[in-house]
Amino acid sequence: MPLLVTDYSWTQTETMVHVNVPLKGAKVGKVDIISSDEYLKVHYPPFLFEVFLFEPIDNDRSTAKVGNGVAILSLSKRTNQMWEQLMMTSCDKETKKQIRQQALLKHQEKLLSESQSKAEKKRAEDTYLIETMMKLEREEAKKIRKMKDAECERTTAELEAWQPSCNKTEEDENKAKNNVKSSGSRNVELNQRGSTAAKCKKQQVHPPALRRPGNIQVTFTPRVFSTPLRESKVQEEEEWLRKQAEARRILTADAEELKELKDEERNPDWLKDKGDKCFMKGDYLSALNAYSLAIRLNRKMSAVFSNRAACHLKLGNLDKAIEDSSQALDLLTPHVAANAEARARAHVRRGAAFCELQLYVEGLWDYEAALKIYPDDESLQSDAQKIRGIIQGAAAAAPDKQ
How far apart are CA 25 and CA 368, in angstroms? Predict the structure, then answer.
């Protein structure tokens, strides 16, 4: 069942009506807009915005623009007068059904005509392209034919000039052959003897000896990740390992502040462990301070940002919890098996902060992202279902309030 959009806004002049519909994170390619003179529909799953207009409009002169998270619909009025409201309220279900069906039929006819015009335009372009190619091929064939004719004429002239010298050369070769015949008969017997000796020598050749057996040493590259190696994931795994190595060696605190700290307090890993212990005891302020100092020393540790988000969530600092969770998710890229659990925790913490701020749609996105990582987690499934119930309840209550 689609969720009805109620947080839209509209303005009007004597000639135009402007309607702004928030897209709630939907991509431009997934927004479906259908309009007619009496009906308007904007569908981006799972949300639906449907209007049976108060007065007829000129649909051919109306426009729709989608971008920057909002759909802007500019409707041209048929009569220059101000509307009392955007939607009809006195229309019954049967009339609405007929208006909706007529709008869908007109939309299908419009799509069909656009498709036919595009097909005709493509056929015309293809015909022009084929004719142009055939013309170029005829010109190229004509050019090649001229080159062949010129080459034949040149070759014929050379043959005619070369014929007299060729006759003289043949006479000289015949005389030389007659002189060679007499000496050639004496060499035939010698050549036969040589070939017989070569055959005997070939029969005495032995095949090469077998190679000695041996062992080939094979070594395997050690794996850092527990999952099997896949070529499609090699680049992402290498980038993740590079970020982890960079996180362990980058220190961003000022030199003067480092001198005032103890040796163990200069270690971000020690500060993280201290923050974890304070968090387990319920001392969230001390844990927050430990995590903040660790972040000042090293801003590349995703776990510290995620844990500090949990502290902010406990202390009611919801905006800061969202900010730290988002920073942790940025550091947890690329997505590999080694950081799957950390990504799920960050999504849940950010989703919980969104829900505390009553931004249930954004919170549901984070819980669904965590479910993609752990689809069988019953706790995540239960929480996501509760949020869906809240969203659907709010959507159902909104028309009653109007």
Answer: 14
Per the CB < 8 A criterion, the answer to whether 14 and 25 are in contact is no
Pair 225, 339: CB distance under 8 Å: no
- Rounded to an integer, what distance in angstroms lies between the CA atom of residue 38 and that of residue 10? 16
Amino acid at 68: N
| Residue from 47, 51, 17 nearest 32 by CA | 47
Query: Quick one: tokens of 239?
Result: 């980038």
| 9-12 sheet: strands from edge to edge | 9-12, 16-22, 70-77, 57-67
Mind listing the pLDDT tens digit for each residue in 264-306?
677 888 889 999 999 999 999 999 999 998 888 888 889 999 9
84 — pLDDT class (breaks 50, 70, 90): confident
State the amino acid at position 373 in one-letter form: I
Contact (Cβ atoms closer than 8 angstroms) between residue 38 and residue 52 = yes
Domains of the chain plus CATH, in order, are 3-117 (2.60.40.790), 251-401 (1.25.40.10)
Least confident piece of the model among 128-132, 236-240, 307-311, 349-353: 236-240
- Mean of the pLDDT values across residues 337-345? 91
142 token code pair:
């004509």
8 Å CB contact between 10 and 48: no
Q: Which residues of 256-292 are buried (b: 16+ CB within 10 A; e: fewer)?
A: eeeeeeeeebbbbeebbebbbebbeeeebebbbbbbe
Q: Is 93 helix (H, G, I), strand (E, B) or coil?
A: helix
pLDDT at 260 over 80: no
Count Cβ neighbours within 10 Å for each residue of 326-364 and write b for 16 or more, e otherwise: ebbbebbeeebebbeebbbbbbbbbbbbbbeeeebbbbb
Structure tokens at 383: 């929480």
Residues of the chain above pLDDT 90, percent:
20
Peptide bond into 334 cis (omega under 30): yes
For 325-335, the pLDDT digits (tens) are 999 999 998 88
Distance between CA 95 and CA 87 in Å, rounded? 14
Q: What is the dihedral of CA 279, 285, 286, 292, to 10 degrees?
A: 100
